[in-house]
Structure formats: C-alpha cells, structure tokens
Amino acid sequence: MTEREPRVLIIGAGVAGITTAHVLRERGFTDITVLEKGSDVGGVWYWNHYPGLRCDVPSQIYQFGFAPKPDWQHAWATGAAIQRYHRDVVEQLGLAELIRLDTEVTDAQWDERRHWVVTTAAGEELVADFLICATGVLHHPFIPEIPGLADFAGPVVHTARWDDELATDGKRIAVIGTGSTGVQVVSALQPDAASIDHYVRSAQWILWAPMSLRQMPGVAAVLARLPKVHRTLYRLMAFGGSRLLTDVTTRPTWRRRAVQAYARACLRIQVRDKTLRAKLQPDYEPLCKRQVVSGSYYRAIRADNADLVTDDIAEVTPNGIRTADGTHRDTDVIVLATGFHAHNYMRPMRLHGRDGISIDDAWAKGPRAYQMTAIPGFPNLFTVLGPNSPTGSISLQYTSELTARYIAQWLAKFRTGELTTVEVTDQATTRFNDDVAIAMGPTVWNTGCNSWYLTEGGNVDLWPFDRATMKAMLGSPDPAAFHLS
Ligand code: N01
Fold first, then answer.
1. Ligand 1 centroid vs 289 CA: distance in angstroms?
2. pLDDT at 130
3. Cα(287) to centroid of ligand 1, in Å?
C-alpha cells in the first residue's frame, strides 16, 4: 500500500484546536493547517476580555497536560494571563507556523471526489482530506430582543465583545444577566461606578471561593525545578477534580448534597438582609445550572451604589431601562452578560456533507454526534469539544487531547492506505445518544432549571459519564460504528 500524507484543516485555535494541532504533529502528521478567525489564539480567552474575567477553575488544573505552567501568578488566573499562556504554548511548541490568524471559514463542502473544499471569508479555497472543527461552544454572543434596545442613546456592549475603550468609572451602569459572566462583571465594575443595576431574571447559586488569591510563594520555583513532579501533580489534581465533579453532578450522592448545602450556606452567611436574600434565592437545586463561583459578588451587590433588579425588563428607553412594575432607572451604559448561542458549534459556517446534506438539516432536532466527535452524513469530518462535551465536569483540555488522539488513529489508517473515507453510521450515533439520554436521568442538570446546557428540544447537551468511560470510548476506534471506503 502506498503511504500518503493526509491534508488536515483544523478550524479554530482555542483550547481544542491547539491541542489537536499539537497531538497530530506529535503523531508525525506534517500537512496541518489551523484556520483561526481571530487575530490571536486562545478562542474564548481571546474574544472575552471584559473587566473581572477570571477562570473559575484553579489555574494549576486549567492548563494543557502537555504544557504545564508552574508560575501562574494567581490561584485562579485572570483572562489576560490565560490568553497569554495560550500564545506562549503555541510559540514554545512551534505551532505558530501552522496557524493562520484572521482567517474565517464561511463554507465547507464535501466533494464527491472525496475531499473537503473549504472557503474563507476572503474568498480563498482550500482543499483537505480531513476537516476538524474545533470551533468551541461559547462562541456566538446571544443578544436578547428587548424592545427599545437599538434606540438606547449610550453604549451597549456584550461582555464577549468588550470595548476596552469603554469608560465605566463614575457611570450609571446596567448589567443584564447573572451567569458566571454577569457575576464577574458586576463585581469588577461596582466599586468605581456611580451606580450599578443588576437585572436578574433567574437567580443563581454562587459558591464562595477566594478567587483573587495569589499562587503560594515558592510554588512556582519548586514546580519549575521538578517538572516530573509537576506533571504528576497536575494529573492527580485534574483526575481528582473531574472525579469529584462527575460524582457530584451525575449521581445524587451525599457529596452532591454536601456541595448544595455549602451553596445555601454561602448565601445565608454572606447576605444577612432578608429582603435581599429572598431576591437572591434561586428556586431550583444548586448545581443545576453551570455553577457560578465568586468571592466578591455578594459584597458588590450589598454595596450602597448597587441595586438588584428582579422585575422583568419591559423596555429600554433612550436613557434607561423600564421594568414591568413601571419603574424607570436612568442608565449611561448597558452591559449584556446574556450568554451565548451555546448549541451553534461550527454554525453559522455553511457546512455540507455527503449528498449535499447541510448541518442545519442534519441537526434539525438539535446537535448530535457520535462520542462528541463524528457526525453521520459528514465523512472525514471530526469535531473536538463537539456536542455532549463535558463542560463543568471533566477537564476540556484532557477531553480535547483524548479526542485528538482518537482522530489521529483514523488519520493513521488513511496514511497507510487502509481507508480513504470514514463516516460514522447513523445507528451507532443513535445508540450513543440513547445511552446519553439514559445516563442523563439522575444528573443534577436535569432537576428542573433553565440553563444554557439545554438544547431547544430540551435535551441536556453535556457528558453524563465519567472520565474512565470517556477514556474507554475514545481509546481506539470501533470500525463497526463506521462506513469505511
Ligand atoms: O452566560 P449564561 P454567561 N432578559 O448563559 C440572562 C462560561 N464562563 O456568559 O437564566 C434578562 O450562563 C440569563 O437569564 P436566565 C461558563 O461555562 C466561564 O454568564 O435565562 N436576562 C442568564 O442570567 C458559563 O456558564 C467563566 O433567566 C436575560 C444570563 O443572561 C458560560 O460561560 C466566566 C435575557 C446568561 O447567562 C456562560 O456564562 C464566564 C433577557 N432577555 C463564563 N437573556 C469562567 O470563569 C438572557 N438573560 C471559566
């Protein structure tokens, strides 16, 4: 059999894309190009730079297993530090030469001559044997349709497209939304604002953690001197963290009840004013939504210049916001912390697979992939951190690495001439999704709250299994689940 090098295009240079490029190169693949629409790498950490942005996962866990960083400044790193880390990793591992920045993919079409034709926003056409979509989950900002929003006289900014020139000190600020982002941005803007109104439609449970803590002195020097110990510690912490989170979220154990009791205590202890506490009290179980973690929000919202507004927003006027009870609050700046279209994945890119099927048609009932990575009707295409990825339970860096290694095994079969195309069967995908639906039953995400985890059809778009199951599933490809040619 003749060897032929697969031409691989990876879309996206965030956590998933960087990991995939690294793993494939490590496996000896040489024809790899990463297309990234942003002007720098980092994905969400490039696009998000709102005030107060921090990762709520400890920095010594939130990193690539193949590039552990000893010298994080903070125990929970800032967004800017994480973006810099991604840039440094790309430079240090020599991946920069594979990455084309400012290159947005608008179309990708499977050609019956058995390759992908990819078109960029600049009109350039590229051809690939394999297309890997590492396009992220929290990517396209969700802008709510609020009457009058377009006619507001002042600036309106979505947190994921923050304007660094925006002046907020001394202003009357309205923040809409109370996910992880809303909580972080309110905490950061409150001290210097003239006033801050936080518009909250559904209250959130907020776990207290000392987020601005510095990494302990001496830790960086010790870890840098002992890289093997650092790697082992990283693995142990990542393993322990996902084990605990999986246990707590997927099974109704005493550990889940303990974390929930802690969430309730955080509110009770930090907010003594009963009226305010009642407004901050969610009507669903802690952990049902993606858990918010903050060491400063309750302090910020208790401040004299802060107001928690739980009445529905009726309309935005040119100089403020009117709620359903008729109250009008004057406002200089509106901050939309309203989240993302979390189930778009590679869309709005126009993606057409075998027989011209579009991704919109294939996903008419919601996003669906086999083991997070393969889609029936789309030969030689894989997703990394695709549908059912484990946001909130298992490390996304680890998941990306396992998925990339899995994909590399298919590419190796192409290279040795064992196959030209690989496409997952519909039956295998249905079986996988049926197993997911059953496993989702006892998860906390299913206990009756409205969160971005839910698709329009009401399915929870997460990973309901543990880490060992993921490792086993992505260990080696099962040829019976695929059509090969
Ligand atoms: O978005 P969200 P996010 N009127 O979807 C509200 C990650 N992250 O950007 O709940 C009024 O959670 C909406 O209200 P409701 C993390 O995975 C990580 O905050 O639908 N309100 C909700 O309160 C996180 O989970 C970090 O009733 C409206 C909010 O907007 C994910 O990103 C930091 C509204 C949206 O919350 C998304 O978080 C930040 C309307 N018309 C984010 N429409 C880390 O630290 C929407 N809302 C790692």
1. 10
2. 98
3. 14
Pick the residue whose CA is nearest to atom 21 on ligand 1: 177
Q: Is the CB of 359 under 6 A from ligand 1?
A: no
Expressed in angstroms and rounded, the spacing between residue 177 Cα and the centre of ligand 1 is 6
Q: Where are the alpha helices (DSSP H) in 157-304?
A: 180-189, 219-225, 227-250, 254-270, 274-280, 297-302
What's the CA gap between 289 and 447, in Å, rounded?
Answer: 10
Distance separating the N- and C-terminal Cα atoms of the chain:
15
Does the beta carbon of 415 lie inside 6 Å of ligand 1? no
**Whole-Å CA distances, 24 to 7, 33, 109, 196:** 12, 11, 23, 48
**CB 483 near ligand 1, within 6 Å:** no
DSSP string, 57-86: S-TTTSS-TTS--S--SBSS-BHHHHHHHH
Compute the distance between CA of residue 216 and CA of residue 223 in angstroms, rounded to an integer. 12
Torsion sign (Cα): 161, 162, 166, 170? positive
Ligand 1 center–CA 204 separation, angstroms: 10
| CA 262 to mean position of chain CA atoms | 25
Judged against a pLDDT cut of 80, whether residue 273 lies above it is answered with yes
Q: Is the CB of 201 within 6 Å of ligand 1?
A: yes
pLDDT at 224 over 60: yes
Residue type at position 190: Q
Spacing, Cα 461 to ligand 1 middle (Å)? 16
What would the pLDDT profile of 432-456 be if each residue is shown by its tens digit? 999 999 999 999 999 999 999 999 9
Mean pLDDT of the chain: 97
Give residue for tokens 């920045």. 101
CA 115 to chain centre: 29
What is the per-residue pLDDT across 390-406, written as a single tens digit (0 to 9) for each? Answer: 998 999 999 999 999 99
Query: Quick one: 273 exposed, middle or buried, by C-beta within 10 A (0-12, 13-18, 19+)?
Result: exposed
Examine the pLDDT at 1 and tell me if it is beyond 70: no
Return d(Cα 41, Cα 325) in angstroms, integer.
45
pLDDT confidence bin for 3, thresholds 50/70/90: confident
| Residue 181 Cβ < 6 Å to ligand 1 | yes
pTM over the 0.90 mark: yes
d(CA 359, CA 375): 9
